[in-house]
Write a structure and sequence with these properties.
The protein folds into 3 domains: 176 residues, Galactose-binding domain-like (Jelly Rolls, Sandwich); 87 residues, Immunoglobulins (Immunoglobulin-like), CATH 2.60.40; 298 residues, TIM Barrel (Alpha-Beta Barrel), CATH 3.20.20. The radius of gyration is 24 Å and the shape is globular. The chain contains 6 helices and 34 strands. It has 583 residues and is α/β, with parallel strands linked by helices. The protein has a 9-stranded parallel sheet with strand order 21-32-31-29-26-25-24-23-22. The longest helix has 18 residues. The structure holds alpha-D-glucopyranuronic acid (GCU).
Length: 583
């Protein structure tokens, strides 16, 4: 059961904060010796979380953070040390903290992500626990802080679990650690903990939303200002600390062609949070996807959170600008951030560059559909994804999973997730990456009952790679049982960059380019197709891809190599998108 005792703290980057990024002392602990004793029971005082020092020459302490090798935060441990490349287990992180602030000020530690399970200890006390490797969380640490000599210890364990989300088997690297930014966030006693500022569904000039305060906030007044619109509204928090607002304003709508963002400032008497928010509407009408009321074709690409031009998990603004810059160069107006919520920088740069986003939780392949704790875990990650990114104009689709095998229990599990997503956020579209049913070799159909719960159908197919040769798509037609838009969420082929041969020689750039050419010819004929996100922008690490000299633990379906070199298929797709953009 995910014992999440953490909370959601909206947009730490827009607040008074102190980055805790940098070198943290680290102890690699493959037997979890810092957490359990020789009878496999949790330590009470001997645990590494105490950060004990010997009090006399005879005192026995068998660990020492300050004499242990450091790890960089943010950053997965796998790419920082050769001996940790395949490591799956526990690593303990430790760093010192500033002094307790004066008066009634409060302190939160905010984590962009910790993969997969984290326990946060402050001065030896357990402050919070979190399960889920790709969503942000915060713990309040005020009551454990002292005047001086504060420290935080974090136990991160990335061992895969059959009851986990994702489960044991994934086609991506299980990068462990404090993989994203960590921040010390100070607030007044009563502060702005969350907010939502969006266009009302179906409207193009009415902004609605709410602000949630935390602490002694009874009857507290807050102000929301959007200076470029000449808007300043105030409202009073109710007994739950929440205040609602709505107003009309002649907003310039956000779109890929005009990614207009507005400075938004939310204030109380002694707290301020700043954000940059775009306003747009997305909906479907029959088989069409409408952005601001106009039909749009989503010229997309799938992206893993694989660091560009270096090993490891992407985490920085520079990484986001590189990856999304390549997507723009490809001619995209859309990206599928697979298969899990990406770091906050990706969403903010997508807002800025004008790229619509498909965001997804890692309900991937063979999840334990009958396990109620697994469903709770998936719901928790869905809630955390939506809570974090609900103000990002770029996010147009929430996806509840990828390529999950048909069954009654899977239908119930994912139907629950779709309903929960829609209840939390009716302003965006709900989807999932489904699979095709082959009626005959030339007739493919999408008949997944999960489609009844979705606004948009996603479908993964590998005609030309896992099924047949590059010309396999020729003459194939598609049917659907539902009057809903289709996004072909995956197709593609592996190619080692620089490996050349004829179009029938697997692993060559020519083979991959030929698959794209035959795929595009087929896709263009699908009458209910409204977008594609080919698999995938860049090569990415996978433990399932060992072929020496070709894969070497890389999935080679990228249009760009791990060294940033474009393959022939990049230009095939770019030419198609140039043609689509002119339509
Ligand atoms: C699947 C899956 C991806 C995987 C890809 C592949 O469709 O969704 O996660 O990487 O196929 O086989 O390369």
């Amino acid at each position: 059961m995910p014992n999440n005792t953490t909370l959601h703290l909206q947009n730490p980057y827009g607040r008074q904060n102190l980055s805790l990024n940098g070198e943290w002392s680290a102890i690699v602990d493959p037997y979890d010796n810092g957490y359990i004793d020789y009878r496999y029971q949790p330590h009470t005082v001997e645990g590494y979380f105490a950060n004990r020092k010997p009090t006399s020459p005879s005192d026995r302490v068998e660990y020492d953070f300050d004499r242990s090798e450091a790890l960089q935060v943010p950053g997965d441990w796998n790419s920082q040390r050769r001996e940790l490349f395949f490591y799956e287990g526990t690593v303990w992180y430790k760093r010192d903290l500033p002094s307790k602030p004066s008066g009634d000020r409060r302190v939160f530690l905010w984590f962009g992500a910790a993969n997969y399970e984290a326990k946060i200890y402050v001065n030896g006390f357990l402050a919070g626990e979190h399960t889920g490797g790709f969503t942000s969380f915060a713990v309040e640490v005020t009551k454990w802080l002292r005047e001086a000599e504060n420290f935080v210890v974090v136990r991160v364990n990335n061992q895969r679990r059959s009851d986990g989300v994702p489960t044991l088997n994934t086609d991506w690297w299980n990068y462990g650690g404090l993989t994203r930014d960590v921040q010390w966030v100070e607030t007044p006693g009563a502060f702005i903990v969350d907010y939502s500022v969006q266009l009302e569904k179906g409207q193009l000039d009415k902004i609605t939303g709410w602000v949630k305060l935390d602490g002694p906030t009874k009857e507290m007044v807050f102000t929301l200002a959007i200076p470029e619109l000449g808007v300043t509204v105030t409202a009073t928090a109710d007994e739950t600390g929440t205040g609602h607002f709505e107003f009309y304003a002649p907003v310039e709508l956000w779109s890929p062609e005009n990614p207009r963002l507005y400075g938004v400032r939310i204030m109380t008497a002694d707290d301020t949070v700043e954000d940059r928010i775009g306003f747009r509407n997305v909906q479907t009408r029959g088989c069409d996807i409408l952005l601001n009321g106009q039909p749009v074709f989503l010229r997309g690409i799938s992206i893993h959170e694989q660091a560009p031009l270096r090993e490891g998990r992407a985490h920085s603004e520079a990484d986001a600008r590189q990856l999304l810059g390549w997507a723009k160069e490809l001619g995209c107006n859309f990206v599928r951030l697979a298969h899990y919520p990406h770091n906050s920088h990706m969403l903010r740069i997508a807002d800025e560059l004008g790229l619509m986003v498909w965001a997804e939780i890692p309900v991937y392949w063979t999840i334990e559909w009958d396990n109620p704790e697994t469903l709770e875990n998936a719901k928790q990650q869905l809630v955390e994804m939506i809570e974090r990114d609900k103000n990002r104009a770029s996010v147009v689709i929430w996806s509840v999973g990828n390529e999950t095998p048909l069954s009654e229990s899977r239908l119930h599990f994912m139907g629950e997730l779709a309903k929960a997503a829609r209840k939390m956020d009716s302003s965006r579209l709900i989807s999932a990456a489904l699979e095709r049913q082959e009626i005959d070799p030339h007739t493919q159909m999408i008949v997944d009952p999960l489609g009844l719960h979705l606004d948009v159908l996603g479908c993964n197919e590998y005609l030309g790679w896992y099924d047949g040769l590059p010309d396999r798509p020729d003459g194939v037609t598609w049917q659907t049982a539902l009057d809903k838009p289709l996004i072909m969420t995956e197709f593609g082929a592996d190619a080692l960059q620089g490996n050349h041969g004829d179009a029938l020689t697997r692993w060559t750039e020519e083979y991959q380019a030929s698959v794209y050419e035959h795929q595009i010819a087929m896709l263009e004929k699908i009458p209910f197709l409204r977008g594609i996100t080919p698999w995938i922008l860049t090569d990415f690490r996978s433990p399932r891809r060992p072929l020496p000299g070709i894969q070497d633990y890389w999935n080679r379906k990228g249009l760009i190599s791990e060294r940033g070199e474009k393959k022939q298929a990049f230009y095939v797709l770019q030419k198609f998108y140039e043609r689509m953009a002119r339509r």
